[in-house]
Specification:
The chain is mainly α. The chain has six helices and two strands. The radius of gyration is 16 Å and the shape is globular.
Length: about 150
């Protein structure tokens, strides 16, 4: 059963974005569960995989978490909301977008040595992106790390 089928079964009509949302949410959850930035400590030049990219240090990992993790989640939401015919997401799709947003924000914070369990909506992240035009600024703002 695809992400679209599950969403339709539970909450009515799924959007055309259902499969992409399911994939993004699964990747975010898996990364949050398995990524340990301490694996980067003391490994001169050794690479660790994060969001399809190889990273070698905490700063690079944070950038990748924001750009290649959070970015596509927020980008999908903005794409759907600014389409000629704005998309109406199912409840399951919105839940998955929120979970993916928070999973990537938690990974971003972890890259900075902070354990966090953010509670941010994808809409809040999209609004911050519109205001800042920079997904790394969005991650820093929404995790409170911009104050450090």
């Amino acid at each position: 059963m695809t992400g679209r089928d599950v969403a339709a079964d539970r909450h009515g009509s799924a959007s055309a974005f259902a499969d992409r949302i399911a994939s993004l949410a699964a990747q975010a959850a898996a990364t949050r569960d398995r990524f340990d930035p301490s694996e980067l400590d003391g490994k001169d030049g050794e690479e660790t995989e994060l969001a399809g990219s190889s990273v070698t240090d905490h700063e690079e990992a944070a950038l990748v978490a924001a750009r290649d993790g959070l970015g596509p989640v927020v980008g999908l939401y903005v794409e759907a909301r600014t389409a000629a015919d704005p998309v109406r997401f199912s409840a399951t799709e919105m839940q998955r977008l929120h979970a993916a947003t928070n999973d990537w924000l938690a990974v971003y914070a972890r890259c900075h040595g902070v354990e966090a369990d953010p509670d941010v909506t994808v809409r809040e992240a999209a609004e911050a992106l519109v205001a800042t035009h920079d997904i790394t600024d969005v991650a820093a703002l929404l995790t409170g790390l911009h104050r450090r």
